[in-house]
Write a structure and sequence with these properties.
- The structure is a single chain.
- By secondary structure, the chain is of the alpha/beta class.
- The protein is 50% helix and 13% strand.
- Strand 1, helix 2 and strand 2 form a beta-alpha-beta unit.
- The chain is globular, with a radius of gyration of 21 Å.
- The relative contact order is 0.16.
Length: 377
């Protein structure tokens, strides 16, 4: 084995061990049981130009079987009739929904963070459940989420939905960026057990937080300038001494993150550099690590030796374990080489965009943090 073979093998063996541990032990939202009490849940949906998604997802969300809810949707200055679509769906379904009209974010705020903060200010619930407009929720999702909060005496519960991968490009790229790093690097079962905020994650697609925990961490105002506000909020929850629970929810929740290649590119251009540390040194280290894990096994296997095939075999086992855990289809596994190269290219685009301060999302400039000249990272 060459030194690169050994390094790639060691990294992938560790990742496979984490993925198998998650496959065996990760909490499943559908297994959370029944709530012991029924607090008022405020379902909070920030929506900017989400009319098309809402036609599919909002009727399901409004048909939840949890009896004590209020649903608030904030129309974040949309231009596609988002508010009108939401109101028409409400009349058709006959469920309670309040549509709020959002204002432009103040200086220093990321748009979604400001939308979520406005929703929280208007909510009356003891539990605030932030849900993205592209999330398709089953009837039991809210009930099981409340049960998980109570079962763990948690300050927050977040869930990982099944990804709807409708094009080959989504199938190639989305699992590698969105799912694989979590499933292969984060022992999910240990998150509520350990106190360290570094062992945490949160997913803003489905994030329930008690009002007490939300107020204690300072709400979205505490993470106003964070592009990955959900991750930052999860860390704050643990840092303030509250329990954070992460659940797999592929039976109860599904999401289609992007409806086009252009939208996917814009979204990952916004998120990837912060996801890989948000500074040059951590970003470079992360790129090397992921290249050794996701790309090198294919290059090494071209030598045709048994030793060179070991990293590839470990990577294949890792992808299968992840696919079983979150119900990825076979395309996601088979398209891994293409997806890894595309993900690397998107990561470099994200780095360049953030360094130049030229990152946008749905027509808005995204605040970026560019280090001062000569600063490390």
């Amino acid at each position: 084995m060459t030194a690169l073979d050994l390094l790639s093998t060691a990294i992938l063996a560790a990742m496979l061990a984490v993925a198998l541990y998650n496959l065996a032990t990760a909490p499943r939202l559908e297994n959370a049981g029944e709530p012991s009490a029924l607090p008022l849940v405020s379902i909070l949906v920030p929506a900017r130009d989400e009319a098309e998604n809402l036609r599919r997802t909002l009727p399901h969300l409004l048909r939840t079987d949890y009896p004590r809810i209020e649903v608030l949707l904030l129309d974040d200055r949309s231009v596609d009739g988002t508010a009108e679509v939401a109101e028409s769906i409400t009349r058709y379904v006959g469920a309670p929904l309040r549509v709020l009209r959002g204002t432009e974010p103040p200086p220093g705020w990321v748009g979604k963070n400001w939308a979520c903060q406005q929703l929280a200010w208007s909510a009356a619930g003891d539990v605030l459940l932030f849900c993205d407009a592209d999330v398709d929720a089953g009837p039991a999702a809210v009930r099981r989420t409340v049960a998980a909060l109570q079962r763990h005496d948690a300050g927050a519960v977040t869930a990982l939905p099944r990804q709807r991968l409708e094009s080959w490009m989504q199938a190639a790229v989305v699992p590698i960026i969105v799912q694989l790093p979590v499933l292969a690097m984060l022992p999910i079962r240990l998150i509520p057990i350990t106190r360290s905020p570094s062992l945490s994650m949160a997913n803003g697609q489905w994030l329930a937080i008690t009002r007490a925990a939300y107020d204690a961490v300072g709400g979205h105002a505490a993470v106003r300038g964070e592009v990955l506000e959900d991750v930052a909020l999860g860390r704050l929850v643990k840092a303030r001494g509250h329990c954070l629970v992460v659940c797999i929810a592929v039976s109860l929740l599904a999401v289609r993150m992007y409806d086009s290649a252009a939208g996917m590119r814009e979204g990952f251009r916004k998120n990837l550099y912060p996801l890989l540390g948000g500074r040059r040194a951590p970003f470079a280290l992360g790129m090397v690590l992921l290249a050794l894990a996701w790309i090198y096994p294919f290059a090494g296997a071209l030598r045709g030796t048994v030793a060179a095939m070991v990293p590839l075999a470990l990577l294949a086992a890792l992808r299968v374990a992840a696919a079983l855990l979150v119900r990825q289809d076979a395309r996601a596994v088979l398209l891994h080489p293409v997806g890894a190269l595309l993900a690397a290219g998107l990561a470099m685009e994200s780095w360049i965009g953030h360094q130049r301060g030229r990152v946008t999302w749905r027509g808005r400039a995204v605040p970026t943090r560019v280090p001062a000249p000569g600063a490390d990272g």
